[in-house]
Design brief:
CATH architecture: Up-down Bundle
Strand order of the largest sheet: 1-2
CATH class: Mainly Alpha
Strand content: under 5%
Number of domains: 1
Number of helices: 5
Structural class: mainly alpha
Order of helices and strands: EEHHHHH
Helix content: 55-70%
CATH superfamily: Cobalamin adenosyltransferase-like
Length: 190
């Protein structure tokens, strides 16, 4: 199998249902999701190398997230009506349930948290910020073309999961989160 097709040499690429310029907002949206997925893979690799701390459950979760991010990217690559969307409300509900479970593993916090702590936590915060950029790109796309609203909701919620998992990584490695000390209290305690 050849990896190159030469079809993109003139600055155009295929999406599902059309050919567009490689800098089209649709390509920017799903390309940023792909970038986020690569950072997730990097975070997984870091966790696999991190003995004796056990991240098996988080790795399993992130492998599922990678599958879902492929579905999100695919849905963002679809021109309206060219194929059914894959991402459904169930994806978002699953994330919300996982966020709630993992949040229980973190200490209460009232202030904003700085990205960082352990190297794994920092990697998960990078995932969070890249997904936020993907969300912004998807919003821009949604202003000019129809997209799967559930894919947009998923991008919003997955960034919350990365935030919580970054905190979990710090907690599991006995590292306190770095707080933004110039902040007033912003999070309410239950």
């Amino acid at each position: 199998m050849r990896i190159y097709t030469r079809r993109g040499d003139a600055g155009k690429t295929s999406v599902i249902g059309a050919r567009v310029a490689k800098d089209h907002i649709r390509v920017e949206a799903y390309g940023t999701v792909d970038e986020a997925n690569s950072f997730v893979g990097d975070a997984i690799a870091s966790m696999r190398e991190r003995a004796p701390v056990d991240f098996a459950d988080v790795i399993q979760e992130l492998v599922e997230v990678q599958q879902e991010l492929f579905d999100v990217g695919g849905d963002l690559a679809v021109v309206k009506g060219k194929r059914p969307y894959k991402v459904s409300a169930d994806y978002v509900t699953r994330l919300e349930n996982k966020i709630d479970i993992y949040l229980e593993q973190t200490p209460a916090v009232k202030k904003f948290i700085l990205p960082g702590g352990t190297s794994i936590a920092a990697a998960l915060h990078i995932c969070r910020t890249v997904v936020r950029r993907a969300e912004r790109r998807a919003v821009t796309l949604s202003l000019v073309e129809e997209i799967n609203d559930e894919a947009l909701r998923y991008l919003n919620r997955i960034s919350d999961l990365f935030f919580v998992l970054g905190r979990v990584a710090n907690a599991r490695e006995n590292r306190e989160d770095d707080l933004y000390v110039r902040s007033g209290d912003v999070f309410r305690q239950k």
